[in-house]
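Researcher: Go.
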Amino acid sequence: MTTTVAVVGCTHAGVFATTTILREHPDWQVHVFERNDTVSFLSCGIALWAGNHVSDPKKMFYSSPAALEQAGATVHMHTDVTDVDVKAKTLEFRDLETGDTQTMAYDKLVVTTGSRPVIPPLPGIDSERVQLCKNWNDGVRIKERTQGVKEVIVIGAGCIGAELAEQFSTNGIHVTLIDAADRVLANNFDKVITDQVEDKYREHNVTLALGQQVTGFKETEDGITVITEKGEYTAPFAILVVGFRPNTDLVRGQVETLNNGAIVVDDYMRASVPDVYAAGDSATVLFNPTGKLDYIPLATNAVRQGQLVGLNIDKPTRKYMGTQATSAVQLYDLSLAASGMTQTYANNHDLDIRSTELVEDYRPAFMLTTAPVTSVLTWDPQTRLVKGAQFCSTVDVSGAANTVSVAIQAKFTIDMLANVDFLFQPNFDQPVHYVGAVAAKAVAEQGE
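Model: Structure:
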């Protein structure tokens, strides 16, 4: 008897779950439900697109409904799943173009419904001049709206907001960047690094309205005024990027979730109810630096978890290895990369974690050019385990974050990291690579 799988939602986790399921079980019937008209959109490229750094926006998709059909799936685009009964193993769906509603029985359910933007219940926030930055349609609107404008307000100084502000400012648009936190990228990097980023923003005439909670919005004749606790800022439009939450209302109350709605999954992507799987922004991740379940909506997590759904949907086969939430961002001439926990994260979660900072040139002084790298390593003073690292420089430091990601996952101590066999060649690094150097400094600080 043929197994029927319902995949609800198809961005990254849904695409990879679908293709992996069909690769492993080509005789299964896989139905994909997506309310939008595209799949696999790389929304991380919206800021680059707005800043004229994308060769062709159509290349921001790595799959398509046609490709999924060719792989063997039955794809229901422009279709909204309106109800799921986990116990009865049925779902209802509605064609958004015709309004027709149908019910389908399934054997296995894959919830890859992703996340939705956080939209605070503030006066005036439903204005057409306040827009989001999440999907393809948002990207199109941002690209169109920024043509010829001189002012833009960005609300939220996380990675997305930070990148938007940078791209707008380098294209001659004055940006006001607002955040309730007192630093940009406060959840991603510690102050020694964010101070450098803020200096770059000021050099590029970005107005930093930090430590300011937004209290409301007011339309003007030709723009929108954003009202905060400390002031008012006006521009033709504002972009709201203050975070994301799991889009899991369909199954909430039927499966175990975190308080924010993220579906709790085990090592094999199984939810708390048999034959229900979840992946990506709708699911929890195992955050290796703490060893606990967490919610970290990243495309990298979604891709790997989606693949694991396909590998484990028939029987438990391959365990999830967890995540270090490794990421990077380029702002002006600064390359920033991080893996694991920051000192700020540790402090906010009352964890006994220490950090070591080191600033040194990435290659020898005899070279005609070199540049300083700021390194921050976090580690546990009791176990000496590496818990995280951050890097910032005008040279590419992304590889350093990947190196530390492996170290955390492999449970390296600071002593082990300090003695890794890093290469030395003057074009690339010092006799002691800065990753090893900051680890050696941590060892010296902690003592034998």
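Model: The chain has eleven helices and 25 strands.
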